[in-house]
Amino acid sequence: MKISWKSVLLWSLPILVVLFFLWQGFVASNNTEFGKNIASSRMTYGRFLEYLDMGWVKRVDLYDDGHTAIVEAIGPELGNRIQRIRVELPATAPELIPKLKKANVDIDAHPVSDNNSTVGVIGNLIFPILLIGGLAFLFRRSNNMPGGPGQAMNFGKSKARFQMEATTGVTFEDVAGVDEAKEEFEEVVSFLKRPERFTAVGAKIPKGVLLVGPPGTGKTLLAKAIAGESGVPFFSISGSEFVEMFVGVGASRVRDLFKKAKENSPCIVFIDEIDAVGRQRGTGIGGGNDEREQTLNQLLTEMDGFEGNTGIIIIAATNRVDVLDAALLRPGRFDRQVTVNVPDVRGRLEILNVHARNKKLSEEISLEVIARRTPGFSGADLANLLNEAAILTARRRKKAVTMSEVDASIDRVIAGMEGTALVDSKTKRLIAYHEVGHAIVGTLLQEHDPVQKVTLIPRGQAKGLTWFTPSDDQSLISRSQILARIMGALGGRAAEEVVFGYPEVTTGAGNDLQQVTSMARQMVTRFGMSNIGPLALEGQGSDPFLGRSMGASSEYSEDVASRIDMQVRSIIQHCHDETVQIIKDNRVVIDQLVDLLIEKETIDGQEFSEIVASYTPIPQKPEYKALL
């Protein structure tokens, strides 16, 4: 076990303090030489004079400048044997010495020794010096450690990490799926490397670039790529590092950061999670945080104030742009706002190619198929997906990742860990009918996504799952597609009603009904897809300082609210009736699929479609054209 000098000193200081007080007691106890000849008893001065008059006193040793005496006396009261008795003498007793001489008593005076005083002085000096030296060493070591007690005077200093030539190990080649954002930053890097090409035509370098997007889309990765490509000094800090409990510390850190940046310009300053310090001023219940607002005011001044910050490019990242102060977002501070969205299928393919470089993949793996099966995945999700597949491959003692591991990893990322297969035949059959109901409706509706697989293997909170593969990345969704999704979500509940009867309907469709209600309500209130007309009755935004729904207020009358409820019920009821009819018309194939699913526990989409096609024609699904 390694023991540091700091630990030794921390344990030694209490021991030194105890030894110091013990030394003081030792010196005090030996302050006079009579301590070496401790008497067995004490006697008052008056009793001593009586013994002297009776001739019992034989010898007197004087100590402590005549204030203490050790008397040797013998008499009947003392058992007729010599005893040493201690006597405290008064400060003024001039008649004592003549009496002692008259009684022929041996007198011996013992002067105070200088050795004890010298030792006392040395002891009084050595221990304080050791204590002060140890404390000084500890404070000197603490000054070099972040957060140590010696940092009390450095609260106002910036905590930004500084690199003269940033070596992040990330370049633009490692960034994929965000081509627009990458072009913006390649332009910034080229301005830093070759500014004359831009200044020749009167162009000015942007002062700030704000990266906006959901978590995991690659905002911080882009900043690392800029640091690795630019070749200029790079400062990186988190927005939360400006905020402190002490008044004025945040503003002081902002001033110190920009002072260092100006000394090293041209340079780049990256502020991650800027919403921690850049929230709107004067908002929220009970007023804003004054200290945070002062920090924001200082940041606004440094970015574009009276003096300016020529040669400093501010790059910030956030996924909460809705809470940022308007003064922070204006041109001159953040001239550009770059949106980094979840990648489309082409972007997912590029990201998979980047993360697959250091993975051993088998020849059967098609990254295009994986890209198709992962709509809505961010760059971080895709990196985690391939990493989970590699871990599962190592666990199965395989030499390369196969589609089996990828499929299992996709299921785990989306739905959670695989659970234990069901044993109860009644529950298993009910869940099988529920999942086949979802799958049969989705298969027989032309506007619905095709079935990928149906499984009875539990994952997360779900006892069974039906997976659909979208035919395209759908940024625009038609009314018929929304209705098809509503009917697909109602397929499980409809199958339970048709097969087992309404009294035997279970709670398994609870989450499905929440999704159905949400989709139907958005059709009426946001997309204008109902008889009420093309009206947007509810906005998507909400007050972030009052919660996502507390600040929302209805913008329509009670009569319109009643009509909204009627339209939502009408849409859901119509979809429910259509779904029930599909289940009744295809009861024979549903029973066959349920028996097969109970036996195999998992049916892939191709086999499922082939079985359904042998009983009823399947409408042609839209082709997947995104990769062409």
Automatic annotation (TrEMBL):
The main place the protein resides is membrane
Q: Which parts of the sequence bind Zn(2+)?
A: H434, H438, D512
**Origin: domain of life:** Eukaryota
Q: Which InterPro entries match?
A: AAA+_ATPase, AAA_lid_3, ATPase_AAA_core, ATPase_AAA_CS, FtsH, P-loop_NTPase, Pept_M41_FtsH_extracell, Peptidase_M41
Pfam short name (any one): AAA_lid_3
Q: AAA+ ATPase domain location, by residue?
A: 205-344
* Binding residue positions for ATP: G213, P214, P215, G216, T217, G218, K219, T220
Q: How does it sit in the membrane?
A: Multi-pass membrane protein
Keyword vocabulary terms for this entry:
ATP-binding, Cell cycle, Cell division, Chloroplast, Hydrolase, Membrane, Metal-binding, Metalloprotease, Nucleotide-binding, Plastid, Protease, Signal, Thylakoid, Transmembrane, Transmembrane helix, Zinc
User: Record's GO cellular component, any one?
Assistant: chloroplast thylakoid membrane
One GO MF term: zinc ion binding
Q: Where are the transmembrane segments?
A: 121-139
| Record PROSITE patterns | AAA
Localization, per the record, is: Membrane; Plastid, Chloroplast thylakoid membrane
CDD domains annotated for this entry? RecA-like_FtsH
Q: Which residues fall in a coiled-coil region?
A: none
Signal peptide span:
1-28
The record's subunit annotation is: Homohexamer.
Recorded hits in PANTHER family, A to Z, give: ATP-DEPENDENT ZINC METALLOPROTEASE FTSH 2, CHLOROPLASTIC (PTHR23076:SF139), METALLOPROTEASE M41 FTSH (PTHR23076)
Q: What is this protein called?
A: ATP-dependent zinc metalloprotease FtsH
Q: Which source organism does the UniProt entry give? A: Rhodomonas salina
